[in-house]
Every structure is written in C-alpha cells, then in structure tokens.
Amino acid sequence: MTRDSISTAQLRDLVSRYDLSGPRYTSYPTAPHFAPDFAPAQWLNAQAQSRQSGRPLSLYFHLPFCQSLCYYCGCNKVVTHNRARVDQYLNSLEKELQIQAQLAGEQRRVTQIHWGGGTPTYLSHEHMRYLMALTREYFFVPRDGSAELAIEIHPGQTELETLKVLRQLGFNRLSMGVQDFAPEVQAAVNRYNTYEDVEALIAYARELRFGSLNMDLIYGLPRQTPASFAQTLKTVIALRPDRLSLFNYAHMPRQIKSQRLINESELPTAEQKLSIFNRAVQQLSDAGYRHIGMDHFALEGDSLVQAQRDGRLQRNFQGYSTGAECDLIGLGVSSISSVGNAYWQNHKSIKDYAVALATGQLPIERGITLSRDDEIRRWAINEILCHYRLNFAALEARFGLQVSHYFSAELEQLEMLQGDNLVQVGTEELAVTPLGKMVVRRIAMVFDRYLQGQALQYSKVI
C-alpha cells in the first residue's frame, strides 16, 4: 500500500507557495466567526428541531485540569494541584447536564461520548464514576457496547488501574497523547512519557478489550528532525495502534502564553516540517495505515475507514468522526456544540461558566446560526477534507444549485491550484492529488467565504 512519491523539489515549491495560515476546519464557519449576540431563541430553536428529529447525540465533556504544563498546548486548561477544584467543576457540570437533558428530551439516546481536556485522567476514580453516573442519569447511554466511549489520556501520568476503572465505566476507546518519544524533544516541551509507559498501557488496554487505541503525535516541535521523528514513528508502528493522529504544531506565542517558553530557534523550518510529514505518510502507508484525511490515519479494519467508504465521515471539534448522523452537545468550559444548523460555545472562563449555571442559565458565550450559503460551503469543505473530492452532481442535487454559477469565482481560483498539481478539476468533480493532500486545508480555503478580507489569526497550513 504505497502512494505516489513526492520529491524534495516539490516539497520546496509547496513551502514557497503555500506556507500561509488557515483554519483546521473542525467546523464551518470556524469559531472566530461565532458572534456574542447569539440569542437564546437561536439555540432554543436548534434544540427543538434536534429533539423533534430524534437524531442520536454525541456528548463532549471538556475536563480542563492538568498536573503539569505542556509548553506547546493551545487547549483551554487549568494547571493545578488543588483537587478540590474538580468537585466545584463537577457541580457545575451536573447543572449543565440537567439543563441540556431537559432541552434534548428525556433520556435521549447517546451513541458517542468523548472526554477531552486538559487531562481527563486528572480526575480521581471516584470523580470518574460520579461523572459517568450523572451522564447515565440524564441521558440514555446503551450498556451493550454499541456506543463509542472515548477518553484522552496522558500515558506518563496514567496508572494501569485507571484503565480498569475506565473499562468498567464503559469506555471502549483510548487516545494516548504520546507526541514524541525523543527525550530531547520531550524536555524542550515539558511533556514526558517513556516507551515503557506506553507499551504497558497498550498491553493492558488490549487485555481489557478496549475496542480501539489511538495515538496522538505532534510534528514540528523543537529539536525534532525528519530522522528523529521517523524513529518515533517506527516505534509507534511496532505498537500497532488502530489509529494515529499526526498534528501539525501551531506556534502562536502571541495568543498562547505557554508557547513563549519554547525556544523558537530550535523549531524545524517549514520545509523540514513538510519533509517530516511527507516521510511519515510514506512510513504509515507502507505499514498498512490509510491516510483518512489531513492528519488522521487508520488501519483498514477501523471504523473511520468504513465511515469514509460509506460517505459518513465528518470533521468535528475532535477531528475526524464517524458520527455524521449525530448532534453534538459540548459540556464544560469552552466546549462547542453543533446542533442542527447552529453552533455555540461555552464561556472560556471557569468563573463565568460556573456563575451562569448557578443562576440556572446555560453558559453560552457566543454562537452562530448557519445560513443556506454556510450549509452549502460546510458540506463542500467536509467532502474535500473527508473524501479528497467534491462531486458536483451530488452538490447540485443536495442544494438545488448550479456549481458553475454558484462557485464560479472558486472554480477560477482552483485553476491555479490545478496548475500546481494540487487538484484535478473536471466537469463532474474536484479531486485532490497526492501532492494536494499535503496542503488540503489550502484547497478547502477556496470555498471559505469568511476568509475574504479577514485578518484572523490561524495556524500555518504547513
């Protein structure tokens, strides 16, 4: 299972032309375009439509606490040793669960749960049991294993006994934030976990019959080289996780204070980063992993691969997901919900989040109701990012439009990308080339109306 080779000259040319900033498209419109004047009537209407549709739900819980600071991290996090803060936070989460359950409909069926952070395994076993009990009290979570229950773990700070507790609670998917095995890279970003840590957790997780194991790696970290990252990836491949995410490190020290602790002179160049990713794609392809999209890879038997084949794959706030038929309710500080034709985000401050819930209000800070144009472009961008193609006939049939007219300006822009061998555009579809997959975010940006004339801060495409 190999792909067309990409030469050093092609990589260098990509950097010279496309080393620019752009969204990761975990939503469209993206979060910077959510508005603070998002009225209660808007989210109430979206909730009512969702309730009437009976669509299954996906629940995301943001658990922001960490016991140490990873310098690269851009997540909403709270580094603290004061465990009493968890009790206070769970009290607020219970209030939010209760309100959301009332709006969603009594005992609404949940087919996906994801605990993210922060470091969800910062919670004690008692806290974990309590939160899952609350969730099952307010929502219907099947106990037969049919629902996907996933959690992010820090392998350097997770005990084997914790995996046993998680399995008892119904979790069947683990995502390990490995990032890099090279000691010099770990020291540069203050994120430590050994190979032995990871190997022991994976062995026990398989003994406990977790259904899927994912590993997160980050390329572009300080002191990384193409050779060092290839060695990390070789080690990871030998452990044979079901899925892999290779995230592109976004160095944005103006927005993310912790990144100011990173020595910028030790960061790889854009050309080196692209070389790291190009080599990694080839390594994973040779090892039997399918390049799902952007930064996600999976073995052929994984549900992500099947969802892609079935046309059910989607991008959401956790990356790639099989839950295209679900409405997503985000719970906890800074969480984002995607319900029907609306997005909204909770307060980013724990204090503001708690105060809103203490007064019986949902802690919504901003949001947006999608226009028809938003829905059209969201679908087109999702097709490009999830399937590396955009079928024009399907788009026209779904939305009752004529592609050559509606996207006339976009088709002109695509001519330049076609000249650079990033896409092939015919009368029936747009198809992303192997070279284009390296910068697929740039291709999706063609269809983003909100980027026109905007000067927003996004991470680099490369």
TrEMBL record:
Keyword Metal-binding included in the entry's annotation: yes
CDD domains xrefs: Radical_SAM
Family recorded in the similarity comment: Belongs to the anaerobic coproporphyrinogen-III oxidase family.
Cofactor note: Binds 1 [4Fe-4S] cluster. The cluster is coordinated with 3 cysteines and an exchangeable S-adenosyl-L-methionine.
Gene responsible for this protein: hemN
Domain named Radical SAM core: residues: 51-290
Known partners and oligomeric status: Monomer.
Protein keywords: 4Fe-4S, Cytoplasm, Iron, Iron-sulfur, Metal-binding, Oxidoreductase, Porphyrin biosynthesis, S-adenosyl-L-methionine
Binding site for S-adenosyl-L-methionine 2: 72-74, 118-119, 179, 191, 216, 250
Stated name of the protein: Coproporphyrinogen-III oxidase
Protein source organism: Gilvimarinus xylanilyticus
Catalysed reactions, as listed in the record: coproporphyrinogen III + 2 S-adenosyl-L-methionine = protoporphyrinogen IX + 2 5'-deoxyadenosine + 2 L-methionine + 2 CO2
GO molecular function: 4 iron, 4 sulfur cluster binding; coproporphyrinogen dehydrogenase activity; coproporphyrinogen oxidase activity; metal ion binding
